[in-house]
Amino acid sequence: MHAHTFPSAMTSLALAVALTLSSPASRAAQAAEARFVLEEATIADIQAAFAAEALTSEQLVTLYLQRIKAYEDGGPKLNAILTLNPKAREQARALDRERKAKGPRGPLHGVPVLLKDNIDTADLPTSNGSAVLKAAVPPDDAAITRELRAAGAVILGKAAMGEFAGGSYNSVGGQSINPYHFKRHTGGSSSGSGAAIAANFAMLAVGTDTSTSVRGPAAYSGIVGFRPTTGLISRDGIAPKNLNFDSAGPMARTVTDVAAMLSVIAARDSADPTNVQVWDEIAKRHPVTQGHLDFTAYLDAGALKGKKLGVVRDFFGGDPEIDALAEQALAAMRAQGATTVDIQLDPAFVQRYLGDGNRDIRRLSDHRFKADWERYLATFKDPNLPKTVTEMLTIYDTTVMPSPLPVEDSVLRLLKTSLTTSTDAPEYQAFITKTLPEATRDKLALFDRYGVDALVFPYFSAFAPPIKNPAYSIDDKTYVESKRPQPATLAGYSSVGFPSAVVPMGFGSQGLPMDIGFMARPYDEPKLMGIAYAYEQASHARKPSPLLPPLKGETIDYKTRPR
Fold it and tell me: Which residues form a coiled coil (predicted)?
């Protein structure tokens, strides 16, 4: 572990927030009555209440814990969180004292954050959603955990996830539930991160995304999710799913808050060689300060003007309600000055990257699973923890399978298959040296052929599916299944590092949300962030779940302090 100083880009962001609050146009408002509402609160809302001394970080943590108790431990029991930080209030109290003595470190000072439970925390277990590892406490923090703590964030706890980063069920806590429909799931594998942010259990969450695991739960939960270029965020201290593709990503209720968190967790880190390569490229294109980039600088409500967007029509036709929402979203973008061009993928592209070829990409990429996981297991100091995939399989067979929360067959298949595959296999070597470079060329060519700044599409062609797992299943006859390709299968783009964002675009007749998806070229995060923000500001489609209403004490009236 090495010491971190908070980057000047973040200090500039904090100053920008302060200047906004103290500008001449806002001084009159500062003298007036103000109201803090926990439901849908943003970082700016929280920092304004902090600055007025109407709210403390300790009080904010308490309010979020109250919601978690009501809707996680009771009520619908969303199963969004696996572990709460028992020292969250204490840590928030210390940050309150620091704020009073020295001022805030930056915009995340005192802000509660949830981490997906495959992100290492030296003071909390990192189970990866597996009962086999439910007591596994890492020796140190992941790189992004360190960055968040250095920024003054409060780690509220660890969010539920699909076991070994697949699906939305795990053998530690069971099934995560969709906050908008309790018979539907949240998507995976950052299932708890998506559900928790949609349910207003925290201000921010971090998920991870190998193929769709940040964007999928965000889309099914009606929040914002952002998967950057692979390697922009260090993977050091994150349990691997597939290091060819793995990326962490911020999840929040607004694009602004996603940008603020990405500005903190995306940092140059010598412990991740891919990260170093990416930051070398980023530095050629964008203004990097102390290993960070201030993504909030690209939040421009006019960013759609002059942009050309490629509409991937292959992903329409699954559900007329989703199609209608997507057409409304496209109309809003055109009204903001964007032009759109329809893209119809050719059959060979569909076969290679959405059909059997994409499955081959995933299968071959899993050849490295055993080596990566046994390297990760070796970092734990507890002698009682398994050190090999074979040992994990033994514990699953003897302990987990007979339990009330058995492991999913897909997890066992992944582990067993990994015993018979290797990165030394000729087909894997061909995958690395030939298939992935060809995929990069093919996918960049699609952007170039149509001359587009980004691809756009409804992120799924069906709403969140009914719950189905080894513990129980729900037969929901109201579900409309899509026969069209799911846009999430465009995940082949993740294999070559293309950044992507999802932003709420509205709700279907059953009250389920859906997001519009955007995808850009590698290293184009600033442009992508601007496009996502401009669309969000033109649509404001995000709404909280009516099934999880505000609780007593979540609204605070106060008077702002003139500066």
Answer: none
